[in-house]
């Protein structure tokens, strides 16, 4: 029997807004890859389940079963923390006994031997195996991960390829991995700050300037503008100025407008001219404006944190540290509040997007990216709406 991987999500606290209760932490993008994909790569184990009480039954593109944390798990298996993102060159080894720990000795994974049952994260057994990586403390820490790990991630994933004809290359051409990506003449590839990795099916239109480190996943189309120091998940459409931002996947920013130091969930759509501010006039620390009070982030640069299926109208202006909840439709007179509740119809949250309206839009949007709204996915969206509107 082959060992399998289980990912243990942290509690759904406000630090994970706007994704708490929306999607598992293991399905968020930390550096070039999802947290789950990082653990799969370094352990070479297939994922059997995600353990999460907040989003049990979650179903979306490319995910695996999400079950309650109290689910009984039998060995051989490895249970790892979703709020720890291992370095891609970490190699804990095949099925060793004991506990995986970080550099400070804090447990981040537990091996469950054949014939044994996992009893919880409070267990610890010898020997211990050190694993390098970064602890994730909330959504804003995904930007810390981007800044500190994206360059090394791209190097780990780099498979150098010839430079397409007609492009302008600055820096070492060996730091480009383009595979079968379509790069039109006139594209600028600036590799002086790090590698650029373009996966299968990526299209880069003429007039685009790419600056590494940059990782762009399958079937994404870059439509023009300056895109730098970012990770863009699968099947996105991106245009304009983008800096140090995380696209989880299936998002649409097809028009002009600055997006900086921001995190976008799946199925986000930013209307033309949507602009984020990512720096206060005082150059001071940015706090998140949560209903229970301000949450300091320790960051000088922080744009917007935008939940799954959220949308903005044309010309939307977003202040530093703005949170837009899942399913929100942001429109109406400015200014947009720094916290927009989930499923708001309009920026102030006075009205809510109905379940019928939410599903009707999802039914139109998802097939545009070749994704079927299956019964499992529809049931997951129904539970999401019920959780966040009660």
State the strand order across the main sheet.
13-16-19-22-25-28-33-36-38
Q: Spans of 5+ residues with little confidence (pLDDT < 50)?
A: none
Got a strand count?
38
Helix fraction?
Answer: 10-25%
Q: How many distinct helices?
A: 4
Work out the radius of gyration. 21 Å
Round the mean pLDDT to the nearest integer and report it: 94
The proportion of strand residues reads 25-35%
Class derived from helix and strand content: alpha/beta
Overall shape: it is globular
Distance between the terminal alpha carbons, to the nearest Å?
Answer: 44 Å
Give a written overview of the molecule:
With about 400 residues, the protein is α/β, with parallel strands linked by helices. The protein is about 15% helix and about 30% strand. The chain has 4 helices and 38 strands. Strands 13-16-19-22-25-28-33-36-38 form a 9-stranded parallel β-sheet.
């Amino acid at each position: 029997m082959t060992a399998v991987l289980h990912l243990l999500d942290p509690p759904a606290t406000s630090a994970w807004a706007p994704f708490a209760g929306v999607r598992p932490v293991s399905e968020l993008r930390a550096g070039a890859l999802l947290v789950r994909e990082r653990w799969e790569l370094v352990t070479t184990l297939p994922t059997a389940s995600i353990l999460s009480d907040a989003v049990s039954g979650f179903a979306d593109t490319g995910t695996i079963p999400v079950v309650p944390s109290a689910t009984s798990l039998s060995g051989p298996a490895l249970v790892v923390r979703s709020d720890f993102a291992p370095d891609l060159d970490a190699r804990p080894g095949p099925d060793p006994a004991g506990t995986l720990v970080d550099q400070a000795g804090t447990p981040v994974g537990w091996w469950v031997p054949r014939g044994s049952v996992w009893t919880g994260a409070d267990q610890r057994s010898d020997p211990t195996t050190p694993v390098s990586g970064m602890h994730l403390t909330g959504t804003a820490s995904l930007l810390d991960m981007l800044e500190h790990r994206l360059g090394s991630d791209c190097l780990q994933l780099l498979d150098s390829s010839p430079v397409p004809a007609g492009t302008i290359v600055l820096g070492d051409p060996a730091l480009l991995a383009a595979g079968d990506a379509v790069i039109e003449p006139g594209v600028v590839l600036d590799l002086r700050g790090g590698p650029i990795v373009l996966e299968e099916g990526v299209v880069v239109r003429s007039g685009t300037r790419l600056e590494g480190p940059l990782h762009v996943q399958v079937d994404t189309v870059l439509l023009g503008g300056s895109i730098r120091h970012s990770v863009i998940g699968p099947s996105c459409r991106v245009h304009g100025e983008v800096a140090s931002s995380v696209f989880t996947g299936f998002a649409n920013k097809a028009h002009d407008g600055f997006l900086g130091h921001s995190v976008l969930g799946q199925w986000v759509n930013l209307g033309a001219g949507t602009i984020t501010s990512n720096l206060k006039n005082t150059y001071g620390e940015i706090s998140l404006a949560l209903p229970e009070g301000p949450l300091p982030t320790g960051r000088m640069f922080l744009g917007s944190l935008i939940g799954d299926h959220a949308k903005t109208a044309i010309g939307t202006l977003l202040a530093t540290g703005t949170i837009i909840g899942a399913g929100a439709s942001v429109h109406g007179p400015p200014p947009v509040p720094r916290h927009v509740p989930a499923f708001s119809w309009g920026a102030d949250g006075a009205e809510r997007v109905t379940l019928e309206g939410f599903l009707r839009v999802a039914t139109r949007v998802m097939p545009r990216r070749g994704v079927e709204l299956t019964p499992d996915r529809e049931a997951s969206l129904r539970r999401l709406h019920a959780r966040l509107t009660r």
